[in-house]
Amino acid sequence: MTSAAPTSTATAKPDDDAKIAVSLRGLWKTYPGSSKPAVQDLSLDIRDGEILTLLGPSGCGKTTTLRMVAGLEHPDAGDIYFGAQAVVMTAKRLFMSPDKRNVGMVFQSYAIWPHMTVAENVAFPLQARHFPKNEIKDRVAKALDLVGLAGFEDRQGPLLSGGQQQRVAFARALVTEPRVLLLDEPFSNLDAKLREQMRVGVKLLQKRLNIAMLFVTHDQIEALSLSNRIVLMNFGVVQQQGDPRLLYEAPSNEFVRDFVGRTLLFKGKVQSSNGAGQLAIALEGAPDCVVFGRTYHPDGIASGAAVYMGVRPEDVEILPANGGAPPAGTIGGTVQAALFVGERIEYQIEIDGQGAMLLYGERHRPIEEANKVWLKLRPDGHSAWSSNWSHKDE
Ligand SMILES: Nc1ncnc2c1ncn2[C@@H]1O[C@H](COP(=O)(O)OP(=O)(O)OP(=O)(O)O)[C@@H](O)[C@H]1O
Ligand SMILES: [Mg+2]
Predict the structure, then answer these.
(1) Which atom of ligand 1 has the smallest separation from the CA of 33?
(2) pTM of the predicted model, to two decimals?
């Protein structure tokens, strides 16, 4: 049965700030029959005009969170506010029904009704709320115009492409002028090119409407490119929240580091620490390569400790070696395999003292297999992680 007595770390009512569209405070949800919570102590604010993305692997609780905001699931503990108005207060047994919350939803499946025309589909939520006929007509026209489907009013649903059907779903979600737009993997049924177009379309739509959007995806490119802020979850627990650059450049734990983008892990040894989390690290296998990175370990990492330096692949430049020892700031290696993948060349490189890694090189400067290379790392901006690999001198 339900587990973990829910306790909330943040039950305070949000500030009476008109800019905050939706606040979640200390939400917990365990499904009946499950031993683990699907969502644990989740708190976040979504502001007007902001795309906030819930990102994370399958089963981490993204859809559950969205459904709690929509009123389709009851949280076990915690509160939800729309602006300053409480729509859920579990302690007071307050639960506003979904039809009173005025949220717009778009799912992975287009879910438009095949027996209706485009205009009838979009008008449906307004008819259900008994809007006057004239207003329905105006609002439907405006919503279709917003998603670029003006002129498609009389087309039947099945006669539209997948991308057009999804735009109808967007228009239908927007037609009630919702407080928040909830998007659950809305592009995952579309092909890659169409996804790109829809991404740009949503970004432009958000600019025009200044609406709050809660967007769910497990696609990190989608999350990085669309979001004002990302909340990265794993097993129902928030791992880090912040703007996309923060998660990419300053991951606060190993899960974030490995989930968002690719990271190369270089073995190294701490030379010095400035006490503010910045470490100078000498790379293993390089005579003269010291780079700087930040540690998020609460106690820091001591000088002399063996560490892993987390380096983004695009922060390494591959240079042809011209004999002798690698120059300062570089580490040597040998190309084992070169794979032309179109926009770049991917090299499997056996790196001195490190092992094999996959690195990216420019397609205009190809390097043959079996050639020696020098790898030039950006001097700073990396991340440092404690490790228990054994330094060869120890
Ligand atoms: N109706 C339900 N009954 C029981 N367990 C459920 C139910 N819905 C979801 N779960 C479980 O709750 C956890 C979170 O599910 P959720 O659907 O929120 O994940 P998600 O992050 O949206 O995953 P995905 O990326 O696969 O859509 C999972 O372990 C899932 O199996
Ligand atoms: Mg889901």
Answers:
(1) 4
(2) 0.88
